[in-house]
Amino acid sequence: MLETARSMLELYEKGVIEFKQRSISTVGKLRISLPAVFLNGPFTRHLANFIKENPDISLSISYSDLREDIIADSIDVAFRIGELPDSSLKARHLFVLPRQLVASKDLLMQHHPIKHPVELGSLPWIGLTMRENIREFRHKNGELAVIKYAPMVCVDNIEAAYVLAKQNIGLAVPPRFLCENDVKLGEMHEVLPDWSLEPLKVYAIWPANISTSSAAYKLINYIYNAMEQHKL
């Protein structure tokens, strides 16, 4: 009897959550989560256009690099950077995020010129708490180099890592859209420009029970099409 009661309670709780998810997605309200690094970039501009073009949809937006629990936190759509763990959630690849290894001019002047990725260990690094301290570089001639490093400081925000890099703290690997203007102006320098890092994949993730006619799908398709037309 006790086991039966527990099973019924679990089914009831699951049903309540699923009903809540369906309700949120069909009445013109959306709760979405996206990385904080997207705040100052093309993604948020496209999101703003979506809001303007769909005034009947009310959005609650969380900008955070912490990976929230989509079901427990009643999130309709989460946008995530990097490979995804296996789960029952649905996912769609949206676009790739090119990256650059950069440092300030003052920092580079304090060290011998870097000619190969294996030499990068002699420079200070700014690490990210959500990523391993390892980088894989590929030369334009095809050579592959994998390096590990011990960061001088770790942060939980990509944009914060870049700001610290601009203050001569260490090397950083921000998305290209975040640093390309500073590189053009000479305020930051790309390190080893003949070597590249694999772009990171960006996905939309959502609960499997959300209808394809929902506001969530409308947003996902809108962002996909916008990023296709304006590649990073």
Which architecture of the largest domain would the CATH scheme give at its second level? 3-Layer(aba) Sandwich
What's the domain count? 2
Q: What structural category arises from helix and sheet content?
A: alpha/beta
Tell me the helix content.
25-40%
Based on CA inertia axes, which overall geometry fits? elongated
Radius of gyration: 21 Å
At the fourth CATH level, what is the homologous superfamily of the largest domain?
A: Periplasmic binding protein-like II
Uncertain parts: 16-26
Instruction: Please report the number of helical segments.
Output: 6
- Report on the biggest sheet: 5 strands, mixed
User: How are the strands of the largest sheet arranged?
Assistant: 2-1-3-12-4
CATH class of the largest domain: Alpha Beta
**What oligomeric state do these chains adopt?**
single chain
Mean pLDDT: 88
Give the amount of beta strand, in percent.
Answer: 15-25%
Give me the count of strands: 12
GO molecular function: DNA-binding transcription factor activity; sequence-specific DNA binding
GO biological process, one term: DNA-templated transcription
Pfam family, one: LysR_substrate
Protein name: LysR family transcriptional regulator
